[in-house]
Each structure stands twice: as structure tokens, then as C-alpha cells.
């Protein structure tokens, strides 16, 4: 089995009801605070369009890793201004990220062992996998996520019951391997 030399970065945004948005990072783009702010703007627009009942309330919780783009002051100010509560990834707990135990394995299962000739082929296959995920799958993912968060001492029962949690994560996709690369 050969690894494809083609790679692309996909950012997914989802909540308990399903996929909210996804986007592919342009080749060569550095993920910095400025790019992350664009991702947050994209998230807000997707929420406005796909979850209009959540839009006026501005009560979104974003779970992301503690990477520098996520913890930048500009990101924190933007989030506060737009009512986005930030729930950081607990340190040394990579298995808590929903993409690590939910999205990545589903994509990897389909893409593993395949070789792609173009980035567009990788993107198309990845989109099809994401679109095939059912709402019940996302609900199960959040049930597992709540248990994992509680195991590390973060009680989110009320938070999860009353607020829509949006998760932003990314992965690098090649033909034989899908490796978590960047989780927002």
C-alpha cells in the first residue's frame, strides 16, 4: 500500500443536529489567527443560514484545541463580541476531540488504501463521506463527547442541554491515511 503524496486540509463544523459547514483550506495557506478569524466568520454565517433559531440568541459554544491561532487575543475578542463561548481542549486529552473518535475514523475507513490522482478527487470523496453521516451519528458523537469531558472533570450537562455546541476540526487526507492535523 502506497501513501498518496497529495494532501489537503478540511475543516468541519458540526453540532448535535449534524454537519453545519465544511471548507477546504487553500493549498499553502498558513493557519494563523487571521485565517482562524475567517473560519469563525464562516461559522457564524453557516449558523445564520442552517440554524436560524440559534442566530438571535448568540449562544454558541466552540470546542477547539489550544493551538496559538485559537488562543490569540483577536480570536478571543471576536468570540466575546459575537457571543461565542470558547471551550478549550483539556491538556493531554487528544481522545476527547470529537473528530478524533468520530469523523476521522469514518473518513479513514472509506479512504484507507486508496490512491488519488488529484486534490479534487480527495475533496469529492471527503465531501461524499461527510454528507453520508446521519443526524443520529452526530447525536451519538455528542453523547460520547459529554462522557469523555466529564471523565476529565468538565461537567457540561446543563451546557449541552441548553446550548448548541459547534465543533471545528480539520484533518489531512491522503489515499491511505487520514491523520488529524489541525483542530480548531
From TrEMBL:
It comes from the Eukaryota. InterPro entries: RNaseH_sf (IPR036397), Transposase-MT_Hybrid (IPR052709), Transposase_1 (IPR001888). Keywords: Signal. Gene3D superfamilies: Ribonuclease H-like superfamily/Ribonuclease H. Residues 1-18 form the signal peptide. Pfam families: Transposase_1. This is Transposase. It comes from Cordylochernes scorpioides.
